[in-house]
Amino acid sequence: MPPDNDTDKRDFRAILFLIVFAAGAYFYHVNFQGGPCARPIKYHLGTFDKSFGVSKESFLKAVSSAEDLWEKKEGKDLFEYTDKDGFSVNLIYDDRQAITERDTLLKANIADNSNLADSVRSELLALERQYDLASARYEKMLADFNNEQNAYLQRVKALNKKGGASGNEYQELTAERNRLSSGIAVIEEQRNEVNAIAQERNDLAKKYNLVAADINEKVDIVNQTAGERFDVGEYISDKEGERINIFQFENRDKMIRVLAHEFGHVLGIEHVSDPSSIMYELNVGTKVSLGTGDISALKELCEKK
Ligand SMILES: [Zn+2]
C-alpha cells in the first residue's frame, strides 16, 4: 500500500506581525494642534519598489482605500496626499515578500498535487479491488484444474492397476486429457491478466509515491518559514522623520489592511485586542473594513481635545 500523505494535517499559516516603533511620542503628533483628527495629516509616496509587481497607480489606489477606511468612519479628511509633504509611505521589497510569493506558488502547486494524489489513490483502490477479484478467480481456476487433473490421474492409475482401459474408457480418458490441456491455456490467460493488473497497480503506486514525495518536499519548504513572526509593515517616527514602511502582503486586501494599520498608528491609535480589527497586532483578519476595536479607538481618539 502507498504511504499516507499527511499534508492535509499540516498548517501553513505564517504569523504576520504588524509593528509600531514608538520612538518619539507619536501620540503627540505635530498635526494634532486643535486635537487629534482636527486637521488632515499630510503624506507622500516615498520609496516605491516595482518588484512587488504592483503599479504605482494601483498602489496609490490601495493607499487611498486604506485612508478611506478611517475617513469614512469619521466623516472627515484625516489624511491628505501630497507630492512631497508630510510623512512618507514606502513600499520596500525584501525576503518577506519574496518568501510570500514563493509560498503562494508552492501552495498552489501543493493543492494541485493533492488533488492529483487523491485521484491516483482512488484509481489505486479500484485497481486493488480488480486485482483481488482476478486473483481469486485465478486461484479458483487453478484449484479446480488440480482437482480435475488429480481425478484424471487417479482414474488412469486405477485402470492401469486393473490391467488397462477398454476402448470406451480409453476414448473418455483421451477426451478428458484434451479438455485438461486446453484448460491450461485458459488458466495461463487468467494468470497473465492478474500479472498485468499487478503491474498497472505497481506503476500507479510509484506515481502516487512520487506525487506524495513532491508534496511533502514542498510542504517542508513552506513550513520552514511558516510560523515565523515578521513585520509586514511599520510606522516609524524618529529624528529622520515620520514614515510608513510596507514589506509584505499576500493579496490586495491584505495590502490595504497593512496600509490602514500603519495609518492608524500615524493617527495615534495603538493595537487593539480584537483579532478581526485592522489595529490588531497581527494581520490575520480578511475584511477590508474597520473592526469594532478600530471604531471605538478612533472615536475615543477624535473626541480628545
Ligand atoms: Zn501595529
Task: Provide structural commentary.
Helices cover 57% and strands 12% of the residues. With 305 residues, the protein is α/β, with parallel strands linked by helices. It folds into 2 domains: 7-101 and 227-303, 3-Layer(aba) Sandwich (Collagenase (Catalytic Domain)); 110-224. It has a 6-stranded mixed β-sheet, covered by helices on one side. Helix 1 (56-74) packs across helix 4. It is rod-shaped, with a radius of gyration of 38 Å. Zinc ion binds next to strand 1 and helix 4.
Could you write a compact summary of the structure shown?
This protein is α/β, with parallel strands linked by helices and 305 residues long. 57% of the residues lie in helices and 12% in strands.
Characteristic terms for this protein:
5 helices; alpha/beta; 305 residues; Collagenase (Catalytic Domain); 57% helix; 6 strands
Oligomerization state = single chain
State the helix count: 5
List segments where confidence is low: pLDDT < 50 over at least 5 consecutive residues: 1-16, 18-32
Unique bound compounds = zinc ion
The dominant shape is: rod-shaped
Rg: 38 Å
Give the integer mean of the pLDDT values.
89
Strand content: 5-15%
Strand order in the largest sheet: 1-5-6-4-2-3
Gap between N and C termini, in Å? Answer: 72 Å
* Secondary-structure-derived class: alpha/beta
Q: What order do the SSEs take from the amino end to the carboxyl end, as H and E?
A: EEHEEHHEEHH
Taking the sheet with the most strands, its summary is: 6 strands, mixed
